[in-house]
Amino acid sequence: MDLKYGLKSTKYLAFSIIILLQPTISLLVDTRFENSEVDENSGLSLSSSDMETSIYDLDEMEEDAWTMVQKNGKQFTLNGQPFYVNGFNTYWLMVFAADQSTRGKVTEVFQQASAVGLSVCRTWAFNDGQWRALQKSPSIYDEDVFKALDFVVSEAKKYKIRLVLSLVNNWEAYGGKSQYVKWGKAAGLNLTSDDDFFSHPTLKSYYKAHVMTVLNRVNTITNITYKDDPTIFAWELINEPRCESDPSGDKLQGWIEEMAVFVKSIDPKHLVEIGLEGFYGPSTPNKVQYNPNTYSQQVGTDFIRNHQVLGVDFASVHIYPDSWISQSITDAHIEFTESWIQSHIDDAENYLGMPVVFAEFGVSTKDPGYNSTYRDAVISTVYKTLLNSTKKGGSGGGSLLWQVFPEGTDYMDDGYAIVLSKSPSTSNIISLHSKRLNIFNALCSWKCRWGCKKKHHTSENLYHDDL
């Protein structure tokens, strides 16, 4: 991996000195890209001179730039300027950090991800009642595991990576809603379904207590309270919620409405998202045609309705045609991926007025017919479709690849793991997308070393439409 073109490359603003000399912004864009090439299949390509040209070092800016990512309308912002995300998932970081023999893998994955420009990582801030549990029973925590989460947060900042922290699982892995139900039954509650997690007052109180504990946690390494730490990009209410016992969606909707506001009441500074897969539900019968199958509209989720909730800042969508449509890979999977992304970007713009992040996507090596070329084609499709939105300043806020692993963690692989050092073609695609997004972020920032913040009146259109 080429470190100089990774996340650290943001030390250099890849503009020619001509930026400071040209009287109009249009000349800036023409000059900036005169040696670039355009690839019809994937968008803007960069010449080596583009990335190596710099007018000043941004070290002095980096120190004061580590601030909260925020949302302004349909875009993420950082220091008042648009911020587009190229990120990844590695869910097991806390568990690995809890054991000194595996803690180094946390550092490795951040180091390798930052080298290809990945800037946001989604990971679990829960492990309920399982092996190496964070929450051993309601409101009872293992301090050593909490210190492991502290390490993950502190280590992420070292590599300029922000975190999406998920607060509970819909599935049984790492405890999830079923573990909350088990705790409730042990306390004598009359519970009949795992979906009681979404409606029973006691189970909701267990979840709220966990939220309060995590958000108010003071990091033992940095001494920064989680709810005040800019390293955290966003809180995720629950990973892939489904409530099949109520296909109308009312039960899950009520839970989302309650919990989004509750999280914001504790931490109004950070962004909040739900963790949805993106299925369309009963409130939008004209949209269900975009679902991968008929079953997905009966699982109690409702993409547009769920996101029209006070306290939810951006939309989340997952992309798994190999589990939703058919395991055997075909070109139809790529066609679905493109239409699925575009549909949700359109909805985020037209109905929700918020950014959308495609928070999980990938291809399993276990799929019949799998090959790395196909995986690269899927990843490129996701990036290309998002870049089309980015160019227009649209709602396509970014994507998080499922999932990036360091070497020596094969026993955790669910089939989707990408070891960057062993996947040069995939690494190159990721790195190039990072460079493209960094250009948009840099063009949009339009900052000079003297701190000039005056915005040119044509900047909004030119930044996004003319590239």
UniProtKB/TrEMBL annotation:
Database matches in Gene3D superfamilies: Glycosidases
Domain of life: Eukaryota
EC code: 3.2.1.78
Gene Ontology cellular component terms for the protein in this record: extracellular region
InterPro entries, per database record: GH, Glyco_hydro_5, MAN-like
GO molecular function: mannan endo-1,4-beta-mannosidase activity
Domain Glycoside hydrolase family: from-to ranges: 68-402
PANTHER family: MANNAN ENDO-1,4-BETA-MANNOSIDASE 6 (PTHR31451:SF54), PTHR31451
Full protein name: mannan endo-1,4-beta-mannosidase
